[in-house]
Design goal:
The structure holds 2 protein chains of 2 kinds.
Chain A (H helix, E strand, L loop, with lengths): L4 H4 L5 H36 L5 H5 L14 H32 L1 H16 L2 H16 L4 H25 L3 H9 L4 H29 L3 H4 L19 H10 L4 H32 L8
Chain B lengths: L2 H4 L8 H9 L2 H39 L1 H6 L3 E2 L4 E2 L2 H32 L2 H13 L5 H25 L17 H25 L3 H9 L4 H30 L2 H6 L17 H8 L8 H35 L3
Antiparallel strand pairs in B: 1-2
Helix pairs in contact in B: 3-13, 5-6, 5-8, 5-10, 6-8, 7-8, 8-10, 9-10, 10-13, 12-13
Classes of the chains: A mainly alpha, B mainly alpha.
């Protein structure tokens, strides 16, 4: 890379130092501009949601009519937890296996699979919803919590594969050499050495995937559809928190719907942040100083 | 020669080959086959979903032609006329607005974190910016609908009444929900992605080159302008493409603030629709002839665009990483 030295040989002048400082000011300003909306959203959700949230809000179901006051979001909390749990049960073992397969076979097959997973990670979530609708909902003939779980699993899978692969790649050489020197079979190496070593990293990826899935609305719209009533039956349409927020927000002309949306939004944000920050904290503990400083 | 030398050992250059042959024995074969089967099944399942969606959309492409569908100006389920242009227009416009706002901010954030702040402070700043991505889309939409739209409405009005009279595309109507608000919300949502990729790009700048500029009496800005930005050019392109890919697919937040009008708007302040938001908004109520099929066809168009943009972004990033890995 050619650096034009002639321009740099001038002694650092006041003007150039000022220019540099100006860029610092610009960068600080830009960061503030990026962070202010985050603060604004958080404050708004907390201030308008805190008054709504109570024990009843978590333990009661909403009234059949959106515009009616009272009730809670029990059905949505239960639906979100159930669908996310099932999605995790689908995506976690599959994702970890795919990551191991990729790391293990290497070569063109792995590159191909990896490309596919990367593309999957980039799919718009609404497109995932359409895919699952065409395959699961159309085949089953009805909307269901199961279809919602499949859609969420499709969102989670690439996140899990990518983070697991990264963790497997970070396994220190001496450890893999040690396993090899002991004459361990490959499956044994993964089961007893690699996976335990990478466990906290893999778990982190899982938490981040869950925190992403919990907040997704678009993939649920035409899969789990939503349900005004409480259900744990995975074959019935099921309510999710994002769906409840979406539908109530669109009717926010009614104070009751607006309050319900705000209370649910506060609950959802707290859930998402809990998973997200827990995951990040584990990452920070596992890989101190790995993130690029300079 | 003793027998010891002939047996496979880790020291022997022949070792790995022998080990590989043995790897197919017993447990390892099962292990590999299981991995292959699961991977294959997932690929197959996704492939099946794509094929199903294409097949469902086929009648629409048959009736209007692929080009006719894409360039069709009119979207009117009651008359069974389906043209995708108003939505493609909306997606392109909101994504462009989002990029114009998000890219400079994200680059400056990345510069602040990697170039100006010590790691100890930079890291928390990076995490806070990352948290923008953790806020669920529906919550951004809720805030956009209830706070941002009312807040921006008078500003949009005064712009439309002032400069909007002269500058095309800034005029009325200004009902509140608009391409502009949608673009702004999407900008907030893609800042963390663009900033994260950019940060990685900047962090790969070789230390020696930075120090060379500093040693010559250059300022921090000189380092950025002469070394960090030129060396990171390819990586920046990747960051922008990946941000664009995300912007194109953003659904719920956009649906809540774009005003949902199936027309090509005459101004950035007009209400409109994007590909993703029209699907989200109309699919559950689609009962007219070919209406669901047409919406799935929009999904196919969206899929094609998103895969193309993201694929390009991933390829450019891989290219950048490889060249950065070689030390350039």
């Amino acid at each position: 890379m050619a650096v034009e030295f002639s321009t740099l040989l001038k002694p650092t002048s006041r003007a150039r130092r000022l220019k540099s400082d100006f860029v610092v000011v610009l960068a600080v300003a830009a960061t503030l501009i990026a962070v202010i909306p985050l603060a604004a959203v958080s404050l708004y959700v907390i201030s308008s949601g805190a008054g709504v949230v109570s024990l009843d809000f978590f333990t009661q179901d909403p009234p059949g009519d959106l515009s009616a006051a009272g009730g809670g979001i029990r059905n949505a909390i239960a639906g979100t937890l159930e669908m996310t749990a099932l999605a995790t049960a689908f995506a976690a073992p599959t994702g970890i296996l795919i990551a191991i397969f990729d790391t293990e076979v290497g070569g063109r097959v792995a590159t191909g699979t990896r490309l596919f997973i990367d593309v999957m990670a980039a799919l718009p979530s609404i497109v995932v919803g359409i895919f699952v609708y065409s395959l699961v909902v159309v085949t089953q003939g009805h909307f269901s919590g199961f279809a919602g779980s499949v859609a969420l699993a499709a969102i989670m899978l690439p996140v899990i594969v990518i983070s697991t692969e990264e963790m497997l790649r970070l396994i220190p050489r001496p450890i893999s050499e040690g396993a090899r020197a002991l004459g361990l079979r490959r499956w044994r190496t993964y089961l007893s050495v690699y996976i335990p070593t990478a466990m906290s990293g893999i778990f982190t990826g899982l938490l981040l995937a869950v925190s992403r899935a919990i907040g997704e609305t678009a993939p649920l719209l035409f899969t789990s559809l939503g349900n005004n009533f409480f259900t744990t039956d995975i074959n019935e349409p099921m309510q999710g928190m994002p769906l409840l927020i979406y539908r109530n927000a669109l009717n926010s002309a009614f104070p009751a719907a607006r309050d319900r949306a705000m209370g649910a939004a506060l609950t959802l944000v707290v859930m998402v942040l809990a998973f997200n920050l827990l995951g990040r904290w584990l990452v920070a503990r596992r890989r101190p100083g790995r993130n690029p400083g300079r | 020669m003793t027998a010891r030398v002939e047996s496979p050992s880790a020291d022997s250059p022949l070792g790995p080959n022998d080990l590989r042959r043995r790897r197919f024995a017993d447990g390892d074969l099962v292990f590999r086959v299981m991995g292959a089967v699961v991977t294959g099944l997932v690929l197959l399942l996704i492939g099946l979903m794509v094929a199903q969606s294409f097949q469902t959309a086929l009648p629409v492409f048959d009736r209007f032609g692929v080009l006719g569908f894409i360039t069709g100006q009119r979207w009117s389920p009651t008359f069974t006329v389906y043209g995708a242009w108003p939505f493609i227009f909306g997606t392109v416009l909101t994504s462009l607005i989002a990029l114009v706002i998000a890219v400079p901010i994200a680059i400056l954030v990345a510069l602040l974190v990697t170039e100006f702040l010590p790691t100890r402070i930079g890291q928390p700043v990076a995490i806070v910016v990352d948290l923008l991505a953790a806020v669920p889309s529906v919550v951004w939409g809720l805030w956009g609908l209830l706070v941002l739209v009312p807040f921006l409405r008078p500003i949009e009005r005064s712009i439309a009444a002032g400069p909007g009279k002269v500058v095309p595309f800034l005029g009325p109507p200004t009902p509140g929900p608009s391409y502009f608000v949608a673009g702004l919300i999407v900008a907030l949502m893609i800042i963390p992605i663009v900033a994260a990729v950019t940060r990685e790009v900047f962090a790969t700048t070789p230390r020696l080159q930075r120090e060379a500029v500093l040693a010559l009496g250059g300022t921090r800005w000189d380092v950025i302008r002469r070394v960090v930005l030129p060396l990171g050019r390819t990586g920046l392109v990747a960051a922008v493409l990946l941000g664009l890919g995300r912007a194109i697919g953003e659904t719920i937040a956009v649906t809540m603030v774009i005003g949902n009008a199936p027309r090509v708007g005459s101004s950035v302040f007009s209400p409109g629709f994007t590909l993703a938001s029209v699907i989200a908004n109309e699919f559950n109520e689609a009962t007219e002839e070919l209406h669901p099929e047409a919406l799935i066809a929009l999904g196919v168009v969206l899929l094609a665009v998103a895969v193309a943009v993201n694929g390009a972004g991933l390829m450019v990033r891989r290219h950048f990483e490889r060249s950065a890995g070689r030390g350039r």
